[in-house]
Amino acid sequence: MSVVISIIVPCFNSESTLETTLESVFNQDFQEWEAIIVNDGSTDATEQIALRWVKKDRRFIYYTKENEGLTKTRNLGISKSNGTYILPLDSDNQLVHDFTQDAIAVFEKNRQIDVVHGDAEYFGLKKGLWKIGEYNFEKMLVDNYIDACAIYKKTLWEKAGGYDENLPHEGLEDWELWLAFGRLNVNFFHLQKIAFRYYVVENSMIRSFTNEMAIDTRDYILKKYSKEYRYYFCKLYSENNAFVGKLSNKKYVIDIFCKTFFGFSVFDKYNY
Question: What is d(CA 74, CA 86) in angstroms, rounded to the nearest whole number?
Fold first, then answer.
């Protein structure tokens, strides 16, 4: 069976969650996958769990290395992959059974699509729906709102230079990659359905992020994407000045009020 999609599972001391994560991979409706498990120097039973799955199904492939952090671990897994598409999966999250099947259908229907992502369901300390929405580059410049658990073409990872290993702290490497994809004018597709289950736990990597770490990382990203930030700042400044100028025009103010609250325009035919 040929490999269409490579599911990359970095793990570090994941003995309490890895079993259900790999089970969600095994239960995918779409079958032409490989799962690359990369053990980032765990000291618990992570390796034993991973090897049981390798023995159970040859589509599970296992690598182990010294501890270097999530970014290098993901990059290593992807570098070893054989699939056309990449799906990063954290070792405590779980795929919905039809996510890969639905995503591949989107790619096959429209070859211009580069990334497919969906919504998520929280479990653990938090319950409910994580409504992610469409990709928007301007919105992404402000903050990350799309999890790493999305399916994208491996060639894009290569063009972007992989996950940035020079980030000052671990935890926001997926944000930087989405910005890199935006710079490349990549086409995202939102599935409008739950694609995975997102585990919320007290001692997660992102919850351990201090204000200083966040500032360091944002400063790094701001410098790396300074041209994009400057462009959209100037655009916003220009639009804001134009809007303030229009507010001085009484006809414009009356027209905005009528359109907003009554649904009709009074001075629409006038050029103000």
Answer: 11
The residues that bridge with 115 in the sheet, in sequence order, are 152, 188
Residue 154 CB neighbour total at 10 angstroms: 17
**Short-list 74, 137, 85, 75, CA closest to 108:** 85
Of 191, 173, 202, whose CA–CA distance to 131 is shortest? 191
Q: Which long-range contacts (CB under 8 A, 24 or more apart) does 29-33 make?
A: 29/97, 29/98, 29/100, 29/101, 30/4, 30/5, 30/98, 30/100, 30/101, 30/104, 31/1, 32/1, 32/2, 32/3, 32/4, 32/5, 33/3, 33/4, 33/5, 33/6, 33/7, 33/59, 33/83, 33/100
The residue written with tokens 């004018």 in the block is 185
Residue 131 CB partners (closer than 8 Å, separation 6+): 119
* pLDDT attached to residue 210: 84
- The per-residue pLDDT of the chain, averaged, comes to 90
More confident call, 241 vs 58: 58
* pLDDT per position as a tens digit, 243-259: 555 555 656 555 655 55
What percent of the chain is predicted at pLDDT more than 90? 76
Number of other residues whose CB lies within 10 A of the CB of residue 228 = 17
Domains of the chain with CATH codes: 5-202 (3.90.550.10)
Q: Could you tell me if 196 and 25 are in contact, meaning their C-beta atoms sit under 8 angstroms apart?
A: no
pLDDT digits (tens, 9 = 90+) for 106-120: 999 999 999 999 999
Q: How far is CA 111 from CA 32, 157, 187, 265, in A?
A: 19, 17, 10, 42
What pLDDT was estimated at residue 245? 56
